[in-house]
Hints:
The protein is of the alpha+beta class. It has helices at 2-17, 28-53, 200-206, 211-220, 229-243, and strands at 59-60, 80-86, 89-99, 104-108, 115-117, 123-128, 131-136, 147-153, 159-172, 175-190, 193-197.
Amino acid sequence: MMRGFLSMVILWFSFTAFPSGLQAQASAPDSASYEAGIHTAVQSYLDYNKNQSRLFNGIQYLSYTFPVTGFPFFITGQWSTGSVDYDREEFSPVSLLYDLVRDQVIIMGLDSGARIVLRPDLVGWFRMQGHTFIRISGDSGIGLRDGYYDQLYRGTHQVLAHWSKSLQESISGTTLTRSFESSEHYYVLFGKTYHSISSKGALLSLFRDRKQAIQAYLRKNHIRYRRDQGLAIAKMAEFYDLSNP
């Protein structure tokens, strides 16, 4: 990869530094300028590559080697173009996968074949498929365990979702079948603690002072909790914030 890049740098610099028909008349000072230009271009690449290399220092991702129905990743089994805040620096665009079984963020290696797991302690956030995930440490004292959380609403009463998948096995006769099963959990920030939301009633109990107004808002906008829990919870929290400026 680097060799190919350097070849392009040299070719580009040759055409820009020495227009057609003038290269044969290049003097010694021109040759020195050429050498200096190549050195600058190469150094710029090396500086850039050194910075990027921090993104590729994780462990190799281990694929599931046995037959299984479905895929372990978020939304799609194909690479998604996104961005990631890693070691306090943003990298974009980046090819990403998010393994929901292992709770691992995976990037495409430089050779386009390897899969590399990002170190979770260095991930601040990542974006893919229109979702923004933040990393939360279990010792933060806010009621959440270690993991990546999808920010569904970022107001005063922030709403997070934790998506996960588990590997399930079933036996029928002598046939073993494996599949990935999805689940999700929702959390709302109230005060300084995130509360797990297991039902519409559980959320309304938090927002009890605006309960009737919230229910009227949901009916008016045809938002049904059972149809789309994440959307309903986010809209309820947003309405509550707007009602309590």
